Amino acid sequence: MAQMIFVNLPVKDLETSKSFWTKLGYSFNPQFTDENAACLVFSDTIYAMLLTEARFKDFTKKDIADAATTTEAILALSADSREKVDELVDAALAAGGSPSNDPQDYGFMYGRSFQDPDNHLWEVMWVDVEAMQRATAEGGE
User: What is the value of pTM for the model shown?
Assistant: First the structure.
């Protein structure tokens, strides 16, 4: 069985978060979704558990970071092309997300970022692996 990852994120309003990600074309696993949590499906092995802050506190003794002022993590998603990077980030911004960092364009790698409604930082990246390997072999970065 392939290893899976479940990223757990606190959210202030679960319905707002679910609506945001649905507008980006993602779905939720109903087996792990209720009034306190929603299992956001990125792929067969990658999930984000969106947890109400009260439910999130059940799993930690630490304070919940205020993502509006503190960066707790930067979550990166791959994309199949430069165009797909733009499509996903543009959809995120249209769905209520906000801009994050400036776009990164290295020719063989392109990325943009956004913040979701709870201010979690997301990057969407495309990499042409063959072009990156050629650039590296030629002494580039």
Answer: 0.87
